[in-house]
Amino acid sequence: MTSTWVGERSRQKRDLLQREITRREAAYSDFIEHASKLYVASATHRIDDDDAELEGIVSLYAVSSRIRLFASDQVIKEAEKVVDRIFMRYGDANVSAEQLRMSAVKTKDDPLKAFSVLCRRELQGIQRGMSVRW
Fold first, then answer.
1. Residue 134: is its pLDDT beyond 60?
2. Phi and psi, residue 126, nearest 5°
3. Contact call for residues 5 and 45 (beta carbons, < 8 A)
4. Burial class of residue 13 (count of CB atoms within 10 Å of its CB; 0-12, 13-18, 19+)
5. Which of 21, 115, 11, 123 is nearest to 60 (CA)?
6. The domain containing residue 12 runs over which residues?
7. Which residues, at least 6 apart from 127, have a Cβ–Cβ distance to it below 8 Å?
8. Are 24 and 100 in contact, with CB atoms under 8 Å apart?
9. How far apart are CA 9 and CA 125, in angstroms?
10. Structural domains counted in the chain
11. pLDDT of 65-105, one tens digit each?
12. Average per-residue pLDDT for the chain
């Protein structure tokens, strides 16, 4: 009887952790996708009253807010840095897609790298929690 209860509790804990990983992966992936598109747009366009640009910004804010509900403080701070960088980039001079590519190759600058690395570490930490015996 006790072993059944312990086994069921362990399975429930694993299921809960797996759902948490899935939820975070989806939010982090959404953020990366939206931020990537907006970063390129911010380098090559100005914010006007372009509905597509504004819709992208709103989507990024929505995903950022969703991440704030469950992510670690470090992940939240990195997401905020990415958003800030995008908005700062909108204020800079426009560059061509080729200039953006050359700059990225030359400087090895990846505006989402720190965010992605922190997300991976966070997800790995949760995954390790799944392998703990209860």
1. no
2. -65, -40
3. no
4. middle
5. 115
6. 2-130
7. 17, 21
8. no
9. 20
10. 1
11. 999 999 999 999 999 999 999 988 887 778 877 877 777 77
12. 86
